[in-house]
């Protein structure tokens, strides 16, 4: 029963399909907190995070040679994908919804003049976010459900080469799943036309969320042949997409996959109110202080020594002004006295 409990808590999986030698992912079964997945992406790109990450899965690596791109694909509806090539995988503890907005902000603040490629896309929700050169590269990318459906029935779509097995091109749920695979193919295809962007100095970020497999599981059931075929097709497509993105960046890209059966409900923020005073006391009955922030010592020393320096400067200036002889120490009085004598 205890083993089953741990499988229920850590059933989801974080996998690293491809990564350069400058980024070290250690092979081990260390659980990764779901809310720290963006921090793993940030640290692997060489950015700092607000709180330290005590997770042994990510090593230090080469600090002077960071990856040029991070690709994170989130697959909903399955807790594990059987990928063709064995990568490094870790169980996820407490899978909560996350976003890479903090990583995108760090890229913009440090490389604002070079306009890096930032693409965040969720095809099933018609949610897209493009910044920088991504607007130029992916201007022809299908993002709405209507565009995705039309894209599938074009001559150069994946339907002409992809074995559908038990899936049907006449079912809306199957078409949603296949359209997400089409998006993966089109991203790599469009980026291949702008290979020079993969060689510039600024790092790029790709965040994709796929929910088509989850819809197939709801429609046919997780024990159905459609779900099994879709899982196999998705795993092969993700591996192919990872290899293509890795090669486009000349082996200097990190490609990660997050397989989540279902996200846990995020923690809601409670507003302060006088009527909720008893509840706050219950949450913190021992009146403990806030969690220690490692920036506290730095900020404290900066403010302390700045105040001491300003105080000493005021004392020295005040002492010199108090003991100054206007006739000898001030050039203003000297010039004034000479002008009076000449007159």
From TrEMBL:
Q: Identify its membrane topology class.
A: Single-pass type I membrane protein
Keyword Cell division in record: no
Q: Name one GO molecular function term.
A: signaling receptor activity
Domain Renin receptor N-terminal, chain residue ranges per copy? 11-261
Check the record and name the InterPro entries matching this protein: Renin_r_C, Renin_rcpt, RENR_N
One Pfam family per UniProt: RENR_N
GO-annotated cellular components: autophagosome membrane; clathrin-coated vesicle membrane; dendritic spine membrane; endoplasmic reticulum membrane; external side of plasma membrane; lysosomal membrane; synaptic vesicle membrane
Q: Which residues cross the membrane?
A: 302-322
Q: What does this protein do?
A: Multifunctional protein which functions as a renin, prorenin cellular receptor and is involved in the assembly of the lysosomal proton-transporting V-type ATPase (V-ATPase) and the acidification of the endo-lysosomal system. May mediate renin-dependent cellular responses by activating ERK1 and ERK2. By increasing the catalytic efficiency of renin in AGT/angiotensinogen conversion to angiotensin I, may also play a role in the renin-angiotensin system (RAS).
Write the protein's name.
Answer: Renin receptor
Q: Which organism is it from?
A: Nothocercus nigrocapillus
Q: Which gene encodes it?
A: Atp6ap2
